[in-house]
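User: Show me an example of a complex going from sequences to structure tokens.

Assistant: Sure. Here are the input components:
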Amino acid sequence: MSSSAGANVSRDIVASGQRAAERSNQSAGGESKSATFRVWRGDAAGGAFQDYATSVSEGMVVLDAIHQIQSESDNDLAVRWNCKAGKCGSCSAEVNGMPKLMCMTRLSDLDLDKPVTVEPIRAFPPVRDLVTDVSWNFAVKKRIKPFKPRAPDAPDGTWRMGQADVDRVQEFRKCIECFLCQDVCHVLRDHQKFDTFIGPRFLVHVAALEMHPLDVESRTDELREAHGIGYCNITKCCTKVCPESITITDNAIIPLKERVVDDHYDPLAALVRLFRRKK
Amino acid sequence: MFECFPWGYGPTGEFSRVAEYETHSHDVLVVGAGGAGLRAAIEAANAGARVGLVCKSLLGKAHTVMAEGGVAAALANVDDRDNWRVHFADTMRGGQYLNNWRMAELHAKEAPDRVRELEAWGAVFDRTPDGRILQRNFGGHKYPRLAHVGDRTGLEMIRTLQDHAIHLGIDVHMECTVVTLLIDGDRIAGAFAYDRERGRFKVFDSRSVILATGGIGRAFSVTSNSWEYTGDGQSLAYRAGAALQDMEFVQFHPTGMVWPPSVKGILVTEGVRGEGGILVNREGRRFMFDDIPENYKSQTADDEEEGWRYVQGDKNARRPPELLTRDHVARAIVREVREGRGSPHGGVFLDISWIKSKMSNAPEHIRKKLPSMYHQFKQLADIDITAEPMEVGPTTHYVMGGVRVDGDTQMSTLQGLFAAGESAAGLHGANRLGGNSLSDLLVFGKRAGEHAAKYAAGAPATRVPDDQVETAARAALEPFERAANVKSAEGPYQVQHALQEMMQELVGIVRREEEMRRALDGIATLKERARRVSVVGNREYNPGWHTALDLENLLTVSEAITRAALERKESRGGHFRDDFPDKDSEFAGVNITVTRGADGGMIVSRIPVPPMRDDLKQIIEENK
């Protein structure tokens, strides 16, 4: 090492790395054991749970177990997945009844003495096994007015924004479109308001646009009418299940509701509108 | 628009001699909807073309979302000494001068505009104190050059492109896999595909086809790549008669997770090292200082103190050796592990927590700068990276090689067939610099879209050849037929796993002649096994069937990689030969191409790199 201070730092690194490795080995609990996965299999016409026993090893997540079953027993077990690192939002499912990304749900956090149930997200129509038809979400996004920036701030065609000004929308833009928030939203799941409500995912999308420092478009008319923001009664289930920890209700939906109120129910503004109409 | 066709399975699953397919007509068909595909589709649509966009997954899930560190562009927002010339010289040095220099030039010149354009479409990059796009340090880049959003830059890019593209009238075919390209004489005429959800066939009638299908990572067992990365574009192009180039150059990213086993291979961003992370072996030695390549000596810090000043933005300091190019860092890690100085689970330690000795708010700073790394280790490995080191080792990450294209237009050697992004070769030469892939997608995605639209507008009409459609449909259904007819047939996953293990073992980071010869024999055997694979179930969302159909692509690119690697009897960039450990001037100026011979065998050729323009040579001299 080139300096003694550096050598001390390095010794600390190795020591704490060894400790972490030992801790990890201990939690592995020696040889692998078996667990039962109760997986929903079927299609739009119907289906049933089927039990699969498969071996479980250190660090495994639910998606690993599903892949193991797919590879060992049922090659045609349908599942969507891509990155296996919690970044793409493809492998949404309900694990023991809770909406989860299968790739980020560790088996060590589940009770493996009982069968682990894995079923598709229930708010959307089943396609096959763990795959659902989420195409409605893509259609909804098309209906939302796109980003429209103000004129550039600098002669070279660029803009100036402070980090503090973009922190808020950066939170919304973390969304990986896993649609777990849509899955648990009562308005969609229980009341099936797919024609009149866009759901938490797209309220977050609208919030990201509305609060974008450069955006000059207004979407409050649509929020109130076509997007149905009034249906949300802020039970915050969406916030609870968000794997990206976006504070959907408090930071996105409530401020949007306030904007709608400001634009449509402000008595002073109403008076101005009335006055204008008379002219 | 349904047509009848002989051979296939009817709705009852019986062999019925009737297969249906839908026909879709587009001027430009884009295969793949990651960054390159989306950017190409946007450009072609803006040019007035009728555009079809086909992707294997849902829109917005492509591998681009995984890109973490940033997009390289000489914006000079953080260091005003940066400009396209320096970026060009850095890219060429990183690629060991095997790059297509015209692409490296266009890339360095156009990347800044492509990044600023994303901002105009709504992307929200991290900011400098004066409100411009912030840039960070990365391996092989002389100045802080990577525009970024924390460590989720790829997500920001793909979402911005996706949200822009959906309002342009592009016809998107989600969860649809192209299995073969259709050719009319010497031109492309379209593609044959199946939709994953229902298993129905689709024929795309299109004068231009752009391949933007990404890489080949799934040919190896330890990889940062998703299931989609089965070398589709490279294989489709090869089988259609186009040339591949530089396939021996596979990038093994130095830092993938090594523990626990189920996450082995998942990427740990180079941004960790860009923010001051250091690599340490089990003896506590910062081993990257031990072996600094000659051509980087003048640019590398003399000691730890200088390295720290560099990551803190001191313009007079030089970068720490952890930020040497990926090929070099990956080999250094392999050396430490092989010589018994690795970490407990067969990697080395990567530590960012040590910066607490340099800054008081270190944990907060780490969480802000590397949020998804913090969560990834916390959730998947129980490691708090603000307090403990990570264990990391090399993982298959990227292929520098791919479809050989014209630098300006991105057209392949086949009329009407284009390629962009990872599926194309040229920009990165023997080794890619971090951050240059996201800029590659934007610059060459745009160029491919523009030129494919232009080509389609001027090209003669093509006709979809019935016999090719018939053959493709029959081949696609064979695995079902075998399930009924062949008693001892095996499933597709066994063959896939066997190939991955073999490629990792025999054609991985360190290669030698004898092992690669064995790999070629192994590939021949696996091809036989793949021909006998059978699948169960029906055509609706059947991953077993999909995997069976991907095998041909995986086998094709594996063979191309192995044959090209055998031909290059030297070590350079991402290609390291134990039996030829040094660079050899004989190979300094040649690219290796792979084409399909008349007998169906692979033809490997050496093609000289065209002589570089004098003004570009001078730029390289000035930046030595």
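The lines above are the inputs; the final block is the predicted structure for all two components together. Chain A touches chain B through 84 residues (CB under 8 Å).
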